[in-house]
Specification:
The chain is an alpha/beta fold. Helix content is 40%, strand content 18%. The protein has a 5-stranded mixed β-sheet with strand order 2-1-3-4-5.
């Protein structure tokens, strides 16, 4: 008798890891966005959370920090065999860094109707727009990724109202 085991969905699995990073950011008072970079052969090479407030640095988005970590781990700025998982659709700055780092695939959770640069506001990964192509998947664990953000801002508004 042949036994079949269902393989876990790698996109959902890695998004769960990114959600852990997002929760860590929220606990630190940061906008709860997390990112994970997975290399095809070496597995997870970077995990990061937003740290703009902590570091006092407007560029300290989860994606940017993860790209830096992955570049160090792989000893190369070209992240050509990697997938970046992030809980929120990347902004223009992060999408630009993804293109520059040669990351071929991005998976994100919640869409960002105010600043999303993959699909929502602008489409920086549009094929042919830049020499390096980036494929993407949006909406992976979208409800969970969106809820963590909504809850963070609900709590923040509640504190400022009272």
């Amino acid at each position: 008798m042949q036994v079949s085991y269902l393989e876990p969905d790698p996109d959902r699995f890695h998004m769960q890891l990114a959600l852990r990073e997002a929760r860590s950011a929220g606990e630190a008072g940061e906008v709860p966005v997390g990112a994970v970079i997975h290399h095809a052969e070496r597995g997870v090479v970077a995990r990061a959370a937003n740290r703009k407030e902590t570091l006092g640095d407007a560029t300290a988005h989860a994606e940017i920090l993860a790209i830096g970590q992955a570049s160090i781990a792989l000893e190369d700025w070209r992240l050509e065999e990697c997938t970046l998982y992030v809980t929120l659709e990347p902004c223009a700055m992060c999408a630009g860094a993804i293109i520059q780092a040669r990351i071929p695939r991005v998976v994100f959770g919640a869409y960002d109707p105010k600043a999303g640069a993959v699909d929502s506001v602008v489409q920086l990964f549009e094929p042919g727009l830049f020499p390096h192509a980036v494929t993407w998947v949006g909406g992976v664990l979208e409800a969970e990724c969106g809820e963590i953000l909504r809850e963070f801002f609900r709590e923040r508004r509640g504190r400022s109202d009272g």
